[in-house]
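Dear support,

We are seeing what looks like truncated structure output for some complexes. This example has two components. We would appreciate it if you could run it in full and send us the complete token output so we can diff it against ours.
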Amino acid sequence: MQVTSSGAGIPVIHVSPADANDARLVGRVADGDRQAFDLLYRGYFPRLTRFLNRMTRSVPLIEEIVNDTMLVVWQKAHRYNADSKVSTWVFAIAYRKACKGIKMADDPVDSDPDQREADVSYEPDNELDRSQLRRVVGDALAALPLEQRTVVHLAYHHDMAYADIADIMDCPVNTVKTRMFHARRRLKLLLADQQEDQP
Amino acid sequence: MNGHVVNLDLQTHRTVQEDLLPWFLSGTLHPADQELVRQHLQTCTQCQADLEWQRRLRAGEPEADPALDAERAYARLLPQLDVRTPGATLAGWWRRALEDNSAWLRWTAGAQFAALAVLALLLVRPAHDDAPYRTLGATVHAEGQLVVMFKPDTSERELRRIVQASGTRLVDGPTVTGAYVLGIAPQQAPLALARLRTETAVTLAQPLAAEGPP
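Here is the complete output from our reference environment:
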């Protein structure tokens, strides 16, 4: 039972102004409104590409997955029933498309930690400039299994609740939390190992 | 501080560190869990350090490949937008039909209005049932709130007994971490808290708001 803070016993989705605006746009898209779809596409393109870029490095594949995702949004907008946020719905489509697309293309981002550059610190506590921090974190994230990396990215960089992530990845909430726990433990090891490798 | 209290602290520490911290940062936790973490962080230096480490990880989000081009991708998608599914077509037809001011639609709307008027008349008839009605979500004024966690193997019957014996009522929960929020009048909260803490099945019992000095 997922009870709200109101105690009413009815699950409530806390809707931000951005979520409400997305829902309005999807309603207009269901009516065939191209202008609304245009706004939705341009709003989601950067978010989806940031997300997908953690799953694959292929630019053409990322753009294709975004287009496949948004084509589903265009065609199935009338079936969006507001049980979840628009962002959860869109990201869930993108995640499914990406898993399928990456499998077919055989182009995962996963990398061998041993092959990473040895001249950077993987400890984010150090005084790194922002670009170096991004590179360090990006390399460490790339060393995680796809499922763990996806949870970390959605939680840290897309501010998604674990229930939303569970919806997107179509798995139980506890699986999301377990993946996050193991991912953090592995990231700490990766970052600490890399610091030790520093001269 | 006795051993029981230490166990409660350890339980909270494990819950906060293993499950809740990442989502505390984004503010997406259930309010009871958010408060639990906030209180725990006031005294736990280990979780404070972990939180700061995670803040740095969040700040280090890698940028997307600059070669990604929204305009180029959108231009490729546009020709495919003309193909709509049958469901979408039907939904669009119905909406257009509603906008159409044709005669048959006016008759249909009139019939619907008449049906609604009959239903409204039935609803406004005086009711004979004078029993008080209170919705599940009705707020109890000036109510205190306690956060309680039970051992995982606690039966529903035992849980119900404990809640009744403490004089509280279930307001919320279980949250995803298994916590419950119990409501009680503020002046009775300390006694209820003491009763709850004597129960062996209770692993955590504390006020939802910050607890004052002992």
